[in-house]
Structure formats: C-alpha cells, structure tokens
Amino acid sequence: MSQDTTLPPLAASSRILPATTYDAILLAGFGGPEGQDDVIPYLRNVTRGRGIPDERLEEVAHHYRHFGGISPINDQNRALKAALEAEIAERGLGLPVYWGNRFWAPYFADALRELHADGHRKVLVLVTTAFSSYSGCRAYREDLATALAETGLEGELELHKVRQYFDHPGFVTPNVAAVRSGLHQLVESDSGAQPHVLFATHSIPTAAADLSGPREARPDGTAVPTGGENEWHAGGGWYVEQQRAVAALIMDAVGDEFPGVDWSLVFQSRSGAPEVPWLEPDINDAIEALPESVTGVVISPIGFVSDHMEVAWDLDNEALETCAERGLAAVRVPTVGIDPAFVAGLVDLVEERHVAREGDSPRERVALTALGPWQDVCPTDCCLGRAPKPTVASA
C-alpha cells in the first residue's frame, strides 16, 4: 500500500476495515514451557534459525528452571481466555474463544485446525501485545500466515487482527491505577519520599525499533525519531513513540495527586550478540544512574500485558535487587493481566470490528493519545523483519 499524500501525516487511523460478522475469536499468545523437560525444546522453537547451541540456551533456561520449568504465561492466557469468554457471554456476542501460541502448545496450527473443524471460517485475532514492533505484531501475522499454509487452510479460514491497543482506555486505565497505587505505597511508607517512575519494556534491536510501525510522521508532521537521539533511548520508531506517549499519559493522569514526579522509559530482557545495538538504557543501569535525591522507585511493566517470565525474573529478581543495592524503596506494580477494565477493553476492540447482524453499528473507536486509533490493516513495509514473509492483515 503506497501512502496517499492527501492524507494527514499519520495515516494509521485511515487504514481501518469495515465492520463485518465474525464466527470466532483467536487469542494469539507467545507460549511457554510447562515443565522442566519442555524448557530446551521451547527455547529451540524461540531461537529457530539462529544456530544457537543447546549449551547457550541452557544459560537462559535457568530462569525457567528457577520456577520449576513452568512459564507463568500459559496459565495467564488460560485465565485471560476464560475472562474473555465471560465478558463476551455477558454482552451476548455469541463468539467462541480459541487459543493458540507461536512457540508452544497449543500452537497456531493446532488452533486453526480446531477452528476449521468446528465450522468457523472468519476469525478475529486478539494478540497479547499492545505496541507496534516486528516481534509484537508482524511476527504474529507472519506465523499465522505460515500456519495457514502448513495446515492447508489458506482460502478456507479468513484471519483478521484487531488493532494495536496501546492507547485504548482498556489498556491505559489499569496502568494508571497501578502506577497511582505504587506511588501511594511509597509515599505512605515514607511521607518524605521523592519517587521516580520507571516504565519498563522489552528491549529490541535499534534497527528493528527504527522500522517499527508504518513509515509516517507524527500528527504534527514532525518525524518519528530513529537512530538514537538522547541518553534515554537509543533508537526510536513507533515502538518507542507509542510507549513514551502512553507513559506520559499515565503520568499526566496521576499528576493530580503526584505532581512533578519524574519518569523514564527503560528497557529490559536484552538478548543477542553484544555488538548489535539494542534499545537503552537497561533498567538496572537506569536505576544505578538515578540521582541521589530519589528515594523510591515505582516500576511499571508498561510493555507487557501479563506478569510472565520476563517480568517475574528480570524485574522481580534483577531490578528489585539493584534497587536494594542502591538503598531505594521499590514497588513493582502489576501488568494489566485480567483486570476487568482490560478484558472489557479487548471486547470493545472486538465490537469495533464485529456486528452480529447486517446493518448494526460497530462500537466507536476510542484512543487516548493523538497517535490512535491505530490501524486494522498494516502496510506491507510495516515493522519489517530481516527476511519479510507473507502475513495476514496486510495490504
């Protein structure tokens, strides 16, 4: 899709699809091991094609082995699926919810076969990531296209994906409440506390960050920063732009009670070759660099929707240990998880796209930043990977 020069600089909101009637919902997750014997096979799935030997995978495996080889993410997705089913039933939408993962059972191919066997043909996909990036959006769409080809269901199943929901009230509101609660905890334990909020998200290579999202400017016409422009993030693109916008929105919302609190967007869970630039600063480096005047830290895992392994290990172990070494009081607030507002927001996104009967009106699209509402369909150059593959929900 070439960019129409008659459109405003940010044209994402113009790439929407008309509402239609869907048969079912597919909850698309990442997946994780369910026992010690699963850990290395799971990590082989995640790193397939990179030539990483098992001995190097074992260096990462200890995170999972610390928790009995069980990633929290699968039970969290089971809980989210159940919560979605309850909300959908409450609204009388009549849409069954299926679940499939990129890297562990139930795999996408398993879910697609089940959907088809049950008679469904048009499916709306809910992805468990809120922001635009290769790993958070395009990779899911590529893997779904691959699963359609592997199962022979191309032309049999039609898959559409809901938009990125980083600035939807269903995602923002629980994060506001969490940060507000964390600040209260710090201040109540120390009335003279000077807190700092660290919004933590997954680091990705700066090259991938720069290519995240469509190739368009901000609504005011200025360019989305790429290539690194200051000490707080090396790289940019829409991945960083969206998260900074949401963090600013959250801090503005809590400013009635906590005016003037400083905040930073920081990164975690870096992997890969050390010579390849990734988004910075690492959360532990950022904690070390905080001024002496800061007496407490609120850590908000803004880049994640559930308290999975990278939250449980990288934040609850490593980052909190760094805070303790600095003598800083610290509160790690929860992700949105199955917060009722988040679950309701996901079903609101479904109702933007699904109408039960022809002639019904879809739900109005809502966005809390100037960047949204985000696109339903992605341009072919959106969030490019190293070797682009066929995708679903592209034009």
UniProtKB/TrEMBL annotation:
Task: Give the enzyme class.
Answer: lyase
Pathway given in the UniProt record: Porphyrin-containing compound metabolism; protoheme biosynthesis
**Would you say which domain of life the source belongs to?**
Bacteria
EC identifiers of the protein: 4.99.1.9
* Reactions the enzyme catalyzes: Fe-coproporphyrin III + 2 H(+) = coproporphyrin III + Fe(2+)
Q: Where is this region: Disordered?
A: 210-233
Query: Which residues hold Fe(2+)?
Result: H202, E310
Which residues are noted in the entry as Fe-coproporphyrin III-binding? Answer: S71, Y140
Alphabetically ordered keywords of this record: Cytoplasm, Heme biosynthesis, Iron, Lyase, Metal-binding, Porphyrin biosynthesis
Q: What is its main location?
A: cytoplasm
Localization, per the record, is: Cytoplasm
* Pfam family name, one: Ferrochelatase
User: Could you confirm whether the keyword Lyase appears in this record?
Assistant: yes
| Recorded family membership | Belongs to the ferrochelatase family.
Function summary? Involved in coproporphyrin-dependent heme b biosynthesis. Catalyzes the insertion of ferrous iron into coproporphyrin III to form Fe-coproporphyrin III.
Name of the protein in question: Coproporphyrin III ferrochelatase
